[in-house]
């Protein structure tokens, strides 16, 4: 499974760490930028990751900016994206189990690298639980239309 990653300058250093760790564990990673700490605009990278997920090229995405807020707002503008801003492991697990989030957003200025990594692990290690949640995700999809 290939995972799309994106950040702005605020998330660039943390993205590097997450990309390295995912790669060293054997995950296929598509690093869609940014590729330096020069100032950029987060909606550009949210759009790239969201499109990689919607196209099916990547199974899920991880977006990192200063707070994770801009990235999550931007990604959720794309039809079919369920992006969850996660600052703790429980939320990351629930984002997958209940909301079937296809992107998580993390704030590099609010979440330290070790917690950020634990959030990524919690999300990737969880499965959508279906059942009652299927109908709710369907309702989310209807809101897209
Ligand atoms: C960039 O300074 C900052 O606004 C951005 O990284 C993010 O926090 C936006 O939500």
Labels describing this entry:
145 residues; alpha/beta; Ribose 5-phosphate Isomerase B, Chain: A; 6 helices; 46% helix; binds D-ribose
- In whole angstroms, the N-to-C terminal distance is 28 Å
**Global shape:** globular
Q: Considering DSSP H and I runs of 4 or more, what fraction of the residues is helical?
A: 40-55%
Ligands and ions found = D-ribose
Strand content: 15-25%
CATH top level class name:
Alpha Beta
Strand-and-helix sequence, N→C? EHEHEHEHEHH
Low-confidence stretches: none
What is the structure about, briefly put?
By secondary structure, the chain is an alpha/beta fold. 46% of the residues lie in helices and 17% in strands.
Set out the fold topology.
Layout: E1 2-7, H1 12-24, E2 28-31, H2 42-54, E3 60-65, H3 69-75, E4 83-85, H4 89-97, E5 103-107, H5 113-124, H6 132-144
Parallel strand pairs: 1-2, 1-3, 3-5, 4-5
The structure holds D-ribose.
D-ribose (RB5) binds next to helix 3.
Please, could you describe this protein's structure?
This protein has 145 residues and is α/β, with parallel strands linked by helices. The protein has one domain: Sugar-phosphate isomerase, RpiB/LacA/LacB (Ribose 5-phosphate Isomerase B, Chain: A), CATH 3.40.1400.10. It has six helices and five strands, in the order βαβαβαβαβαα. It has a five-stranded parallel β-sheet with strand order 2-1-3-5-4, sandwiched between helices. Helix 1 packs across helix 5 (113-124) and helix 2 packs across helix 3. 39% of the residues are buried. The model has no long low-confidence stretch (mean pLDDT 98). The chain binds D-ribose. D-ribose is lined by residues 8, 10, 42, 65-67, 69-70.
